[in-house]
């Protein structure tokens, strides 16, 4: 077996077991971690100043609390915008161009724009009345954007599954020309089984993705168990992918020639 094929199969296995965060663009991840760290710090400061105001409700303490709330809201929405950007990078770095998840990515882009806009809008907060008005409008409009994070996380896992499928097919395409012809019946059976399994995995991924847009899934998006069934399905797909890779290695080791 040629060294190239060995390396190809090793790379395919590494792709399967590696997590997406090891290859995502560092800037997006670092920006999210920075913005979230700022939000946590600002929230702590706001909590202290709010407590001071409640204990001693002077105008000075009120203004300090409002200013701290303003900074906290801004950093919160900047951290959410950077998280949306981070998820987008996680999905897009796979370069799968998998059309069925496009609406989920579009939702992340919309969320990113919304939270950036809200971070800018919070700068106009000066009085308690401003703070109340901002919060009321925010709570009305934020729901679908917060939900996009949940579906976006699932989209990232789907893009990883699709990428593995593409790499698996490429690996098979490398091996097929190395097989001696005419193909023996056992070998042809192995190839047919492999191709059938590949199609089954593709269909399972498509069905899994399509289900995300059903009324039942949309109505359960805020449920605390939203990810439970999806994790189980993803694990099943990964098990099938491992079986596929094992089948490919069997063909390469036992039938391919240099």
TrEMBL record:
Q: Where is the secretion signal located?
A: 1-26
Q: Which branch of life, at top level? A: Bacteria
UniProt keywords (A-Z) are:
Signal
Q: What is this protein called?
A: Imelysin-like domain-containing protein
């Amino acid at each position: 077996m040629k060294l190239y094929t060995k390396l190809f199969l090793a790379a395919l296995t590494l792709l399967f077991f590696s997590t997406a965060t090891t290859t995502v663009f560092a800037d997006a991840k670092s920006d999210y971690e920075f913005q979230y760290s700022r939000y946590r710090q600002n929230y702590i400061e706001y909590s202290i100043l709010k407590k001071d105001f409640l204990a001693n409700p002077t105008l000075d303490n009120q203004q300090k609390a409002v200013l701290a709330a303003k900074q906290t809201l801004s950093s919160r929405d900047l951290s959410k915008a950077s998280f949306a950007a981070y998820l987008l990078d996680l999905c897009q770095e796979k370069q799968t161009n998998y059309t069925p998840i496009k609406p989920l990515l579009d939702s992340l882009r919309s969320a990113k724009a919304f939270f950036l806009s809200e971070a800018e809008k919070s700068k106009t907060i000066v009085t308690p009345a401003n703070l109340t008005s901002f919060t009321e409008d925010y709570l009305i409009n934020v729901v679908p954007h917060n939900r996009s994070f949940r579906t976006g996380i699932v989209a990232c896992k789907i893009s990883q599954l699709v990428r593995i499928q593409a790499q698996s097919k490429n690996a098979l395409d490398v091996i097929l020309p190395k097989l001696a012809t005419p193909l023996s019946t056992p070998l042809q059976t192995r190839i047919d089984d492999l191709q059938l399994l590949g199609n089954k995995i593709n269909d399972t991924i498509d069905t899994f993705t399509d289900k995300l847009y059903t009324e039942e899934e949309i109505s359960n998006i805020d449920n605390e168990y939203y990810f439970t069934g999806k994790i189980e399905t993803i694990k099943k797909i990964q098990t099938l992918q491992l079986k596929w890779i094992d089948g490919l290695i069997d063909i390469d080791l036992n039938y391919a020639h240099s």
